[in-house]
UniProtKB/TrEMBL annotation, chain A:
The keyword NAD does not apply. InterPro entries: ARM-type_fold (IPR016024), B30.2/SPRY (IPR001870), B30.2/SPRY_sf (IPR043136), ConA-like_dom_sf (IPR013320), RNF123/RKP/RSPRY1 (IPR045129), SPRY_dom (IPR003877), SPRY_RSPRY1 (IPR035774), Znf_RING (IPR001841). This is Putative RING finger and SPRY domain-containing protein 1-like. Coiled coil: none annotated. Keywords: Metal-binding, Zinc, Zinc-finger. It holds the Pfam family zf-C3HC4_3. Residues 260-443 form the B30.2/SPRY domain. Gene3D superfamilies: 2.60.120.920, Zinc/RING finger domain, C3HC4 (zinc finger) (3.30.40.10).
From TrEMBL, chain B:
The active site is at C88. It comes from Penaeus vannamei (Whiteleg shrimp). Keywords: ATP-binding, Nucleotide-binding, Transferase, Ubl conjugation pathway. SMART domains: UBCc. GO terms for biological process: protein ubiquitination. Belongs to the ubiquitin-conjugating enzyme family. The lineage of its organism: Eukaryota, Metazoa, Ecdysozoa, Arthropoda, Crustacea. SUPFAM superfamilies: UBC-like (SSF54495). Pfam families: UQ_con (PF00179). GO terms for molecular function: ATP binding; transferase activity. One of its GO terms (cellular component) is UBC13-MMS2 complex. It comes from the Eukaryota. Residues 4-150 form the UBC core domain. This is UBC core domain-containing protein.
Amino acid sequence: MFSGAVRLFFVSAMNGLHYTLFLRLPRWLHGRAPPPALRSGVGSEDGINSAGLSTVTDKYVLDTLAVIRTLVDNDQEPPPSMLKLHTIADKEAGWLVVVRSMVQVIPLHDPLGPAVITLLLDDCPLPSKETVVHLCKFFELSEESAQESWKDPQLHRNICVVLGCIAEKLAGPASIALLTDTTLEYLVAHLNVDNHPCVILFALIALEKFAQTSENKTSIGQYMGQGLCNPLRTLEQWMSDNDYVRRQVGFCAQWCLDNLFICEGRPYSYENVDTTHLNAMLNNNDVSEYLKISPDGLQARCDASSFESVRCTFQVDSGVWYYEATIITAGVMQIGWATKDSKFLNHEGYGIGDDEFSVAYDGCRQLFWHNAQSESHLHPSWQPGDVLGSLLDLTNAEVIFYLNGDPLPPLTQVFNNATCGFFAAASFMSFQQCEFNFGKKPFMHPPKDIAFQSFNDHAYLKESEKIILPRHIKLQKLRAMSVEEGACTLCFDERATISLMPCLHRGFCERCALQLEICPMCRRDIEERREVDEKSDGKSEIT
Amino acid sequence: MAAGLPRRIIKETQRLMAEPVPGISAVPDESNARYFHVVVAGPEGSPFEGGVFKLELFLPEEYPMSAPKVRFMTKIYHPNIDKLGRICLDILKDKWSPALQIRTVLLSIQALLSAPNPDDPLANDVAELWKVNEMEAIRIAREWTRTYAMGN
């Protein structure tokens, strides 16, 4: 779980009538900032003098980073260091100090570093345009400074994370103002194969986040160019590099070329990908909205700040099944098994293992997850290149996880709530990625003492089902769908055949009507849902 | 997203594009049809007049059985909107009905700007000032509008 539950805790502690709306807000640790009522009283009287502020802030940032992976319980208070940072960042000058500290002290190789930057910025008040401009001056962004980035990759990686995060938060006119020629030159200059791959990666992600505003998308696309000189064309060749950071760069470059910065003459990756003998893959229609899936359907990556999830295409109902996931990033992912009843509440920070219908392994925080409860296990923290094996034994009702072939004790709890209808499934924190093997390739560490089957040997996919369309093409197709006359006024999917009693309002299909307790039109209690002749008039319209 | 984009969302989006609400623009994100970039003009005669307020609106998986999630991205001094942009509005919570739409939600938010309700506050300090010294509260609201909601 990525601590959506903590948010809910704070919400319930507030006045229940106040609807708190979080949308693309923190997800993990979201809401760890207490409600304003709890926050009052902290502020300038906190005793921090401005002279020592930077040093103190540096320490709070590192403390937050150190403590973040230990935060898993729903009723845990936010760490004091984080509350302090929020207090400091409450004023614009303080916000700048916090951002400077993060840029300077977050280490290059902490797997949660970039996510912590995103998290802290997410809960802080929005900076004004002037503050952001000031920040860019302070960073001294330029094409030249980018070319020197090998001297201090940590600094430049962190600057790129911050720029991407602000571009996303301020999507729209402010993001256009932020993407000056200098900023654009700075970011694109990083996309050079000789650079530190961590810097390339986050420069690329920053560009992607700027491109959420369409004017920026156009200017970035033009600046990078259409032909083979476009730096992304070189970087996408790192898609299957042996270095795991370079592999992430390859993935993101290919994704950008397919989805955002389309090059004339370059075919979409899905048109060229070899899907022969591919019989099971990640389901592009059963995935939360920000997860990126590779054109071969076997790699997934999250660059959003929500906790993104996906299920496999193949359902298993009996027998013994095994699959593997190669860990490409060492941060928080929850990988395991889920039924269709398991919901992807990505914005609330809930994923696989966070309800009663799923179970997951978290190799970063060294936990099992089931029903949003965690339990420690004895494996070391996973590292890029490690292989997580996941065995579902429906005959004996147990799940066994292996790290590089080393098994943990079987888990059984999930079978109290579900005995069939399982899918391989996984959830991803920001900037996390892994590659699945459902049996198309030989397994790296197949369990030796138990007979199992692989999805790929038993599943079947039509050619059309193997296509992972770029998002803009998928959306175009969906928008072209027509809506029938006489359809339910709530879902527009089914025919409106139900009249509500006693109020007599109609225009609803049976499926929607069964989900209602009061009439959507007049709020009267529903005593009966009566089937009516759909040809008779009196259809109610939503206005 | 168990089965792609529901028709309800497609239909609402088409209508929002074809017949926009005066003073409000709502544009779906290019990569996520459930996420809308919203801009609301501060209503005439309110302390928010002249301001341009950016919001985000997200249609959760259960929409329309559950309400859209809406948040102000532009800072605003308003008793029913807190520092993080969260909005206190009944139709977004217990008074939600699936017959309401993105359009009606945005109209309600526009109306909330015209008529702040300090008796049902989300931002307690703002509401307090609004009750004890409305003129001063309105002055600050105008100032915030100038600082954060103009010229961006």
